[in-house]
Design goal:
- Helices cover 56% and strands 14% of the residues.
- It has 998 residues and is an alpha+beta fold.
- A 6-stranded mixed beta barrel has the order 14-15-21-18-20-19. The chain has a 4-stranded antiparallel β-sheet with strand order 2-11-1-12, covered by helices on one side. A 4-stranded mixed β-sheet has the order 8-3-4-10, with no helix packed on it.
C-alpha cells in the first residue's frame, strides 16, 4: 500500500510531464484519426447516397445507339443485377444567350435516380425537375415554365447521322426512332444529380470550364411523353457491388469482372449485330425505294401506253376514212354501178407501209396531232431517263452502303469516368494522404519527447529505485511506476485525441467539403478499430521510450543506484579549439557553449524536436503557397492569351464576326475545343507511362489549324517538363517545344497524375466519343486544367474525321475544312477589369456559349479544401511546437536545479538566472529552426508529389515570407514557454536544492 501511495505521490509531483505526454499524444492521435475520419465519413455518406439513388456501376454507350437487342444481351451477362435503358435528348433554350441542356428520362428500374431536394418529382408529360445550378443561374423557381428546342443534329449516340450518307437516305429501321421529349416544360422540382455532386456555389463552379461536348444543365423528365425506342445508353448495376464501398479496390475488382465480360463477348458480338441491323435496314430501305419506284414507273408507263393507244386509234380512224374516201372516188369513175356498190360496201385493205406513210402524212398535216405525238414521245423519254437515273442511284447506294455506315463502337465505362465521382474521390484521397503522412512526424516527436521526459523522471528517482530494489521489489514492479504513468498519460491524451479526431477535425473538414460537394445524409461516425489502433500506436511508442529509460538505469546494482550519479567528466568542445573565437567569448558565453554541446542527448532532442515542429509549419505553409500561386502561374504565365471564347459549331462564324467587330482583339488564334478523356491502361512495358499504371483523366482537347501551329506558342507558353524529385520538375527552355503532326502535347497536370511521359502511348476520346491511340510527343508545363494539344492533321489521322464528322479529310482539299473552329484564343487591349467585363458581355451574345477571362480566373481561383487542411495542419504543428518546447524547457530546468541553486547562492538575481537558462534554450531553438526550414521544404515537396488531383499539378513554391513566419512562430512559442518557465526558476530554493543529495 505504501508503494502505491508513493507512486501516486510521485505522479502528482510530475504533473507537468504527465500533461506534456498527454498533450503530445492528444495532438498525434487527433492528426492521425481526424483527417482520416473526415475523409472516411465523406466516403461512407457518399457511398450510402450512391447506393440509395442507384448510381450505375457500369454504363454502356454506342456510336449507333442501343437497341432492344443490345439491352437484352446485357441482361444475360453473368454478374449483372439490373439493366436500365436510358433515353436522352439535347435541347437548347434562351437564358441570357443560347444555353444547352440534356433532357434525361428518369429511369424506371431504379438506376441513377435523382435526389429530390425541393418540390416533387415529375410525373406527367411536360413536367421536369431541374438542378439547383439551373435555379441559381436562371432565377426561375418551381412552377416556372420553359420552352426548349431540340438540337438540329442528333447526338453521337443516334445512328441517323452515321447511316445517312450523301444520298440523303435514312438507313435506319422504321422502329429505331431517336428519343424525343416534350418541348413546353414546367418545373415541378429541384433535384441533385447523383452523377455530379458538385456544389454550384463552391470551388468547382468557379473554376470549371464547359466545352462544346458538355451541356450546361440536365433536366429530368418522366417517361410519359417520351417517344422513340433508340436508347442513348444503358446503365447497369453489378451483383455484390453495393455491398462494397465504391471507393475501395474490392468494389473496382467486382465491377471490373463484369466490364471484362462485356468487353470480351457481348461487346464484339453486339457491335457486329448492330451494324448488320443498320445494313439490313439500309438494304430494306433501298429495296423498298426500288419497289416503290418500279410501281410508280409502271403506273406512268401504263398511262403513257393508254394515251398512245388512244392517239393511234384516232390516227388510224382518220387513215381509214381517207382510204375509204379514195376508194369511193375511184369507183365513181368506173364502168358499172355494181363496182360502186361493192366499193362502198367494203374498206380497202392497205399494206403496213402504205398505212404508216399515211399516218405520218396525216400527223404532219395536223398541228394538233403533231403536238400530241411530241408530248407522248417526250413523256416516254423522260420516263426512261428517270428509270435509268433511279436505277443508277439505287445501285450506287447499294455499293456505298457498307462504306457509309461506319463500324459500330461500344464504350464500356465505370464510375471512374464520371467527372464528379472521380473529382470527389481524388480530392478525398489526396487529403487523406496528408493525414497519413503528418502523424508520422508527430509520432517521432512524441517518442523523442517521451524518452526525454521519462529518462529524466527515472534519473530523478535513482536513489528511490535503488532503495526499492534493495528492499526486494522486483525491477518490473519498480518500472511499472513509470510505465503506468506513461500509459495513463497516453490513454487520457489519446482519449481526448479521439474526441478531437472523430468529432472536432471531421466537423471542420466536412464544413469545407460541403462547400464543394453536396453530400446528403452526412454524419460523423466512430471507427473503433482505427481509433484503438491510433492510441495503441502512440502507447507502444511512448512505452518503448519509457522501457528504454528504465532499462538504462535499472541495469545497475541497488548500491550504485542509491549513490548520487557521478558528474560527467569534463571535456573540451570543438569551439574551444578555435582559439580566436573562444578567447573573445565571455565567461557566461563559454558556460553556455559548454552546456549546449557537452550534453549531446539534450542537444539532439531539443534541436530535433524544434526542427520537426518547424518543418511541419513550413510544410503546411509550402502547400498553402503552392496552391495560392496556382492561379497566377497558370493564367498569367502559362496562358498568354487574355480571352477564350467558345461557341456551338453552328455559331462559330457568327462568334468570330462578333468578336472581330468589337475591336478589342489585338491578336487571335482559331482552334477547336472539345471535352474528352485521356486514358492510360496498365501495361507494364513502359510504353504507356509508368509500368502497370492505369487511370483516366478528363481533358480539354485543343485542335490547332495546320497553317497556324507556330502561332500556338504565342498564346500558350510551351515548356517541356520532365519529372523531378521532391515535388520538383525539370522545365525546359520557353519556346523550345513545338506542336507537330507526330504526336500530341499533354498537360503536366494530367501527365503527372497518370504517369505519362514523352513517347508514351495513350488513348484519347474526343468530343464525339470516338477513341484513338495517340503518341505523346511532349509534356507541357501546366498547373490547372488538363489541356491536350493536337494538330489538325494528326487529329484527322487519329479520329478519321471523314467518318466522325461526315466531312472531307483535311488533306483532300485546302478549301474544305475537316474541323469546325468553334473557339478562339485572343489577346485583348485594356485593363484586367475591362477584360473581365468584356468576357461577361460576350456571354450575353447568342452566338457565344462560353467566354473565359484569364484575368478573372487568376484573381478568383481558390482551393478552399486545401486551404482549410493547411490551416489545420499549421495550427496542430504550432500546438505541437508549443508542447515540445514546454517539455524540453521543464526537463532542462529539472535536470539543473542544483546548478540554478548554486547560481542563486553566488548572488545571481532572478533576471540573470532567467537569462542564463533561456539563452541556452533560445540558441537551441534557433539551431532547430535553421535545421527545420530546409527540412520543411523537403517534406513539403514529398507531400505535394502525393497530391494527384484531377486537373491540378502542385508546383512546389515556398515564399520567403513563409520561412520567416515559420521561424518567427517557433521563436514566439519559445518566448511564450519562457513565461511558464521563469516562475519555476524563481521558486527554486537554494538551501533545499543543494542539500537534497545528502
Amino acid at each position: 500500500m505504501a508503494f502505491v501511495k508513493d507512486m501516486l505521490r510521485m505522479w502528482a509531483h510530475s504533473w507537468k510531464r504527465f500533461i506534456s505526454i498527454a498533450m503530445i499524444t492528444l495532438l498525434g492521435v487527433a492528426v492521425l484519426t481526424g483527417i482520416y475520419a473526415g475523409c472516411r465519413d465523406a466516403f461512407r455518406s457518399t457511398d450510402r447516397f450512391f447506393d440509395a439513388q442507384g448510381l450505375h456501376d457500369v454504363q454502356v454507350l454506342s456510336t449507333a445507339g442501343l437497341s432492344n437487342g443490345d439491352i437484352a444481351a446485357l441482361r444475360k451477362v453473368n454478374g449483372v443485377a439490373k439493366v436500365q435503358a436510358e433515353r436522352s435528348q439535347e435541347v437548347t433554350f434562351d437564358l441570357d444567350g443560347r444555353k444547352s441542356a440534356t433532357m434525361q428520362e428518369i429511369g424506371t428500374n431504379g438506376i441513377d435516380q435523382p435526389y429530390l431536394q425541393e418540390g416533387r418529382m415529375p410525373k406527367k408529360a411536360g413536367e421536369i425537375a431541374v438542378t439547383r445550378k439551373f435555379i441559381r443561374d436562371s432565377g426561375k423557381r418551381i412552377g416556372s415554365r420553359l420552352t426548349v428546342t431540340p438540337e438540329s443534329a442528333s447526338s453521337d449516340t443516334s445512328d441517323t447521322n452515321d447511316t445517312n450518307g450523301a444520298d440523303g437516305t435514312n438507313e435506319t429501321s422504321g422502329t429505331d426512332e431517336a428519343p424525343s421529349f416534350p418541348t413546353k416544360l414546367t418545373i415541378v422540382g429541384v433535384v441533385l444529380d447523383p452523377q455530379n455532386l458538385s456544389n454550384p456555389d463552391g470551388y468547382s463552379a468557379m473554376t470549371s470550364f464547359r466545352s462544346t461536348a458538355t451541356t450546361d444543365y440536365t433536366f429530368f423528365a418522366p417517361s410519359d411523353g417520351v417517344t422513340g425506342i433508340l436508347y442513348t445508353s444503358a446503365t447497369l448495376l453489378v451483383k455484390g457491388a453495393a455491398a462494397e464501398s465504391t471507393f475501395d479496390e474490392s468494389y473496382e475488382n467486382t465491377v471490373k469482372q463484369v466490364t471484362d465480360r462485356i468487353d470480351g463477348t457481348v461487346k464484339t458480338d453486339r457491335q457486329k449485330a448492330r451494324r448488320q441491323e443498320l445494313l439490313d435496314a439500309g438494304n430494306k430501305k433501298i429495296a423498298d425505294a426500288r419497289a416503290e419506284a418500279d410501281k410508280k414507273f409502271a403506273d406512268a408507263q401504263s398511262q403513257i401506253d393508254a394515251n398512245r393507244q388512244q392517239f393511234n386509234q384516232q390516227v388510224d380512224q382518220i387513215v381509214s376514212m381517207q382510204a375509204g374516201a379514195a376508194a369511193a372516188g375511184a369507183a365513181a369513175n368506173g364502168a358499172n354501178a355494181g363496182a360502186v356498190a361493192a366499193a362502198g360496201a367494203t374498206t380497202p385493205q392497205l399494206d403496213e407501209t402504205t398505212r404508216e406513210t399515211m399516218r405520218e402524212t396525216i400527223i404532219a398535216a395536223s398541228p394538233e396531232l403533231t403536238q400530241a405525238k411530241q408530248q407522248l414521245d417526250q413523256a416516254q423519254s423522260q420516263l426512261n431517263e428517270q428509270k435509268a437515273s433511279t436505277e443508277q442511284t439505287l445501285k450506287t447506294k447499294e455499293n456505298e452502303l457498307k462504306t457509309s455506315i461506319p463500324q459500330v463502337r461500344w464504350y464500356v465505362q465505370d464510375r471512374q469516368q464520371l467527372g464528379g465521382f472521380s473529382a470527389l474521390k481524388s480530392d478525398l484521397d489526396s487529403i487523406q494522404s496528408l493525414g497519413n503522412a503528418f502523424p508520422i512526424v508527430f509520432l517521432l516527436v512524441a517518442v523523442m519527447m517521451s524518452l526525454t521526459a521519462m529518462a529524466r523522471m527515472v534519473e530523478e528517482d535513482r536513489s528511490l529505485i535503488g532503495t526499492y530494489v534493495g528492499l526486494g521489489y522486483g525491477r518490473l514492479a519498480v518500472a511499472s511506476r513509470y510505465l503506468l504513468f506513461a500509459l495513463l498519460a497516453c490513454l487520457i491524451g489519446g482519449g481526448l485525441g479521439l474526441i478531437a479526431g472523430f468529432l472536432g477535425i471531421p466537423a471542420f473538414l466536412l464544413v469545407v467539403l460541403q462547400g464543394m460537394y453536396v453530400m446528403p445524409g452526412l454524419r460523423l461516425e466512430y471507427d473503433w478499430l482505427y481509433g484503438s489502433l491510433g492510441i495503441a500506436l502512440f502507447v507502444v511508442g511512448v512505452l518503448a521510450a519509457t522501457i528504454y529509460a528504465c532499462v538504462q538505469e535499472m541495469r545497475q546494482t541497488p548500491a550504485a543506484l542509491m549513490r548520487p550519479k557521478a558528474p560527467r567528466a569534463g571535456s573540451r568542445i570543438l569551439l574551444e579549439r578555435i582559439r580566436p573565437v573562444w578567447n573573445r567569448m565571455g565567461f557566461l558565453g563559454k558556460v553556455t557553449a559548454r552546456n549546449i554541446f557537452r550534453f549531446k542527448s539534450r542537444l539532439i532532442m531539443t534541436v530535433g524536436g524544434v526542427a520537426g515542429c518547424t518543418a511541419l509549419i513550413v510544410c503546411g505553409l509550402a502547400i498553402n503557397d503552392t496552391v495560392a500561386d496556382l492561379g497566377i502561374k497558370q493564367y498569367r504565365d502559362i496562358y498568354q492569351y487574355d480571352l477564350m471564347v467558345v461557341s456551338d459549331d453552328s455559331d462559330a462564324s457568327a462568334m468570330r464576326t462578333k468578336v472581330a467587330s468589337d475591336g478589342r482583339v489585338t491578336s487571335s488564334l482559331d482552334v477547336r475545343i472539345e471535352s474528352g478523356d485521356l486514358t492510360v491502361a496498365g501495361s507494364g512495358d513502359g510504353d504507356s507511362g509508368k509500368a502497370g499504371s492505369s487511370g483516366s483523366e478528363s481533358i480539354q482537347l485543343v485542335a490547332v489549324p495546320e497553317k497556324h501551329l507556330s502561332d500556338l506558342g504565342e498564346m500558350v507558353t510551351l515548356q517541356p517538363v520532365s519529372s523531378g524529385i521532391l515535388g520538383t520538375s525539370g522545365v525546359g527552355k520557353t519556346g523550345s517545344l513545338k506542336l507537330d503532326d507526330d504526336g500530341v502535347i499533354v498537360a503536366q497536370s494530367a501527365a503527372s497524375a497518370l504517369g505519362v511521359k514523352a513517347g508514351s502511348k495513350v488513348r484519347l476520346t474526343n468530343g464525339d466519343g470516338v477513341q484513338a491511340t495517340a503518341k505523346v510527343g511532349a509534356v507541357n508545363r501546366n498547373l490547372i486544367g488538363s489541356d491536350v494539344y493536337v494538330s489538325e492533321t494528326y487529329y484527322a489521322k487519329l479520329f478519321d474525321s471523314k467518318d466522325a464528322k461526315n466531312t472531307k479529310n483535311s488533306k483532300s482539299s485546302e478549301d474544305s475544312e475537316a474541323l469546325t473552329w468553334n473557339a478562339m484564343l485572343a489577346k485583348l487591349s485594356g485593363s484586367d477589369a475591362s477584360q473581365t467585363d468584356y468576357a461577361e458581355s460576350l456571354e450575353e451574345d447568342s452566338s457565344v456559349m462560353k467566354a473565359v477571362s484569364c484575368a478573372h480566373m487568376a484573381d478568383s481561383f481558390k482551393f478552399d479544401l486545401m486551404g482549410a487542411v493547411v490551416a489545420l495542419i499549421v495550427a496542430l504543428a504550432g500546438g505541437l511546437a508549443l508542447v515540445v518546447l514546454f517539455t524540453l524547457a521543464n526537463t532542462n530546468v529539472s535536470e539543473r536545479v542544483r546548478e540554478m541553486a548554486t547560481l542563486k547562492v553566488l548572488g545571481f538575481f532572478d533576471r540573470e538566472v532567467h537569462h542564463y537558462v533561456n539563452r541556452e534554450m533560445m540558441i537551441l531553438t534557433v539551431m532547430g529552426v535553421i535545421l527545420g526550414l530546409p527540412l520543411g521544404r523537403l517534406v513539403g515537396g514529398m507531400l505535394t508529389m502525393a497530391l494527384n488531383m484531377p486537373s491540378l499539378y502542385f508546383e512546389v513554391e515556398v515564399k520567403p515570407l513563409s520561412y520567416v513566419i515559420a521561424a518567427v512562430a517557433t521563436m514566439a512559442f519559445a518566448l511564450l514557454v519562457q513565461l511558464f518557465v521563469n516562475p519555476v526558476l524563481d521558486r527554486i530554493d537554494p538551501i533545499s536544492s543543494l542539500k537534497s543529495v545528502e
